[in-house]
Amino acid sequence: MNQFGMFAALRDIIRRDLLLALRRRSDVLTTVLFFILVGSLFPLGVGPEPAVLRTIAPGVLWVAALLSCLLSLGRLFTADYADGVLEQMLLIPQPLSLLVIGKVMAHWLISGLPVVLLSPLLGLQFGLTGEALGVLTLSLLLGTPTLSFIGAIGAALTLGVRGSSVLIALLVLPLFIPVLIFGAGAVSSSASGIGAGAHLSLLGAGLLLAFALAPWATATSLRIALE
Amino acid sequence: MMGFARINWFRYSSPQAFYPLAGRLMPWCAAAAMLLIGVGLYLGFFVAPTDFQQGQSYRIIFVHVPAAWMSMFLYVVMAIWAGLGLGLNARPSFMMAQAIAPTGALFTFLALVTGAMWGKPTWGAWWVWDARLTSELILLFLYGGVMLLRTSIDDSRRADRASAVFALVGVVNVPIIYFSVRWWNTLHQGASVSMTAAPKMAATMLTAMLVMTLGFWMYSLAVTLARMRCVILERERQASWEANPSQQDALEVR
Q1: CB-based contact (8 Å) between A79 and chain B?
Q2: Which residues in chain B come in under a pLDDT of 50?
Q3: Which pTM value belongs to this model?
Q4: Which residues of A15-41 are buried (b: 16+ CB within 10 A; e: fewer)?
Q5: Do B86 and A177 touch (CB under 8 A)?
């Protein structure tokens, strides 16, 4: 298998998933609206005190991003599984982990990137300013792909299992916790003047680790689900 | 020694051969566990000296530390059996992983509860969001995830393999728990016992802790073997030898 074939396959898979998402825009909009709604529930629940909001902003926005990622994970493989396309995909000559990388990248472009792009707006509403806003966006940019990669393992493991939407949350949320800690920690530490470098480096390391290991684990889980 | 070498250990990788072996080993492990835990508790609660800073409340560590060690150790053992099962496609390995999970979850829960009981008089709070406590809590969730995933998949082959993959993914958490007190400068104190340095505690305390750990280890073995027998009975109910497992025990003794 030459290298061009691998990249062509990756490109085709991403393009296919993006096209499918474009044809069914409500799915994308649900995720984004969910993120905004969860984010705006907190000022209503906690009260509009600016100092309090500024303190809880990193954690709240990160949890909102994490939950909106979780919401869209169920769709990662189920449609292809239901109509039998996934079984055909197992037969393509390129490695299955490549297919997984393509689907995860498409998932991130559809559900992760809009959240990253919207986060400065929500950050402003929570009273974050200047550097903290930049760090929030950067931490989400580094962290949300990791969430998609880890989530793909859970999505593949629970494929076609009864009660899978609840089960996937129980499996994946504990694995999300380190990303949440470092992501929200980056924003808090930059807001308190310590600097976000260490947290952002750890987020980057997490992304590399997830990129290296998660596609393989997801491919194994897909084979288990489909054998 | 020669006789030892002549035993074909791979024979016991068949559930049929393992069932009576587990039955014979289990009472010994259970007896050793009762003895060791009894001695350990006596040493810890009555012989070990009172701590000059924490008073009597420190004595909870004789349960807490061994339970925390076992919670991590059992997760790694479970992941190794799960990995062996995936690699060798061996059903008994998956059964072993299945049999270990509830005991591991029990020790994780015990470590968290005893930690809370110790934290109240020492730190003034039942729970703090410290790195080690949080990562131990994640471990409890991971054990729960492994067990839940297994029970929600009906096909036992897929259930085995899916929960094995999840167990292996979750194993990244174990080094995080272990090194959390060193990586983050947290409220939870650092290790008092290590392989490389002289222990920072009285010899009787150390002995009591090690005896308790051995006792918990024997308890885990006994319970895992008992559960393993149940798992074998449940899964092999179609097999012919299973029609009368008690006869199988009798055969083995003879």
Answers
A1: no
A2: 1-2, 250, 253-254
A3: 0.86
A4: eebeeebeeeeebbeebbebbbebbee
A5: no
